[in-house]
TrEMBL record:
Biological classification of the source: Eukaryota, Metazoa, Ecdysozoa, Nematoda, Chromadorea
Organism name: Pristionchus mayeri
GO molecular function terms attached to this record: protein-lysine N-methyltransferase activity
Superkingdom of origin organism: Eukaryota
Ranges of residues in domain SET: 22-227
Pfam families: SET (PF00856)
Protein name (Swiss-Prot/TrEMBL): SET domain-containing protein
PROSITE patterns per UniProt: SET
Length: 336
């Protein structure tokens, strides 16, 4: 099957499911980026470029309602997390077995470029007892196809989007709420930090909508922002990096911050250390124009304070002065 035939099948399948894509096309986004979504003409801000019924979102609850998956969960008495349910779906759903999702499955990348896809093989018996129940293969028919499982994990991890879903009795949302969905067509959008599109659930109209938040020129690629991710996270989770990434940041743990401050000539003692630790603000340096984060600047300000100023800060921020005064009054009253 040629790429054109795959795409044409997918577009027909999308239309049949009520997915509307107005004035956009899917095509190669260039070396290493797979496919992307492009506008055909110059478009104005606020236009909805992709719309689909909320019922078309692939959520864990929806999978759990499908006969085959409901049976697996009931037979194995397994309550997967939302993420696990979606991984099981992509592991088991196969074009060669006539899946009704075939046109969509055929559009998914066959491989990934994350570090983990370079080779990982786990045996259940090598895992600590406490984590074995989280090891998906125990509910999957054996023999387990490790490569397929890793592929399914990547599909979910690289394509799921944050959406607040209703809980489902067969899904375990006790630790992590069900807040993910894989959304066909919307998941063809690539990432950039300053995206022209926002994607959101329109609860009132029971639709999921991708809307332009600014005008875009003819032929340009549309992106969404997957989150304020630095290049490390983009690489590990999605297998790519951005040349210019305003979210590139360096986190300075408290120990390092104190060591650097001493090196810079500040005299630091336990009062400073306690003040910074109690404030619990993470010091972050961004590579963008934003400069040091507010939290970092506050920590540095604390390290510059003398003891009296630190005392005042604690009085104001933690109301320690009020508490001290109240204790004094109480003590005086008991003495009387
Ligand atoms: C949600 S999918 C987007 C559609 C995908 N390109 C495809 O062909 O199906 C996310 C994946 O797209 C690729 N991707 C997204 N944004 C990218 C970017 N700015 N540069 C390179 N690859 C990108 C990465 O492989 C990522 O794991």
């Amino acid at each position: 099957m040629t790429d054109d035939a795959r795409l044409s099948d997918f577009l027909d399948w999308s239309r049949q499911r009520g997915i509307r894509f107005d004035g956009v096309e899917i095509r190669s986004a260039g070396e290493g980026a797979g496919n992307g979504v492009f506008v055909l003409a110059c478009e104005r801000a606020n236009k909805n470029v992709i719309e689909l019924p909320a019922a078309e979102l692939l959520t864990a609850g929806r999978v759990a309602e499908m006969g085959r998956y409901r049976r697996i969960l009931e037979e194995k008495s397994f309550r997967p997390t939302p993420f696990e349910m979606l991984v099981i779906f992509f592991y088991l759903e196969r074009p060669e077995e006539g899946s009704e999702w075939t046109p969509y499955l055929n559009m998914l990348p066959s491989s990934f470029s994350t570090p983990v896809s370079l080779g990982l093989s786990l045996r259940e018996e090598d895992l600590p007892l406490s984590v074995r129940r989280f090891w998906l293969p125990s509910v999957l028919p054996s023999p387990i196809d490790d490569d397929r499982l890793l592929w399914a994990w990547h599909v979910v991890n690289t394509r799921c989007i944050y959406v607040q879903n209703e809980s489902h009795p067969l899904i375990d949302s006790s630790v992590v709420e069900d807040t993910i969905a894989v959304i066909p067509f919307v998941d063809m959008l690539n990432h950039t930090s300053e995206a022209a599109c926002v994607a959101e659930l329109d609860k009132r109209n029971r639709k999921y909508v991708v809307r332009l938040n600014k005008a875009v020129p003819e032929g340009s690629e549309l992106h969404v922002c997957y989150g304020p991710h630095d290049n490390g996270r983009l690489w590990v989770e999605y297998g790519f990096q951005l040349e210019e990434n305003p979210f590139t940041k360096v986190l300075l743990p408290t120990d390092l911050l104190l060591a650097l401050a001493k090196k810079a000539g500040l005299s630091i003692d336990c009062h400073h250390q306690n003040a910074v630790e109690d404030a619990a603000l993470s010091s972050t340096l961004y590579s963008s124009d934003e400069g040091p984060s507010w939290a970092f600047r506050t920590n540095v300000r604390l390290l510059h304070m003398d003891h009296k100023e630190i005392g005042k800060w604690r009085d104001i921020v933690y109301s320690e002065g009020k508490r001290r005064r109240r204790r004094r009054i109480e003590e005086e009253e008991t003495r009387r």
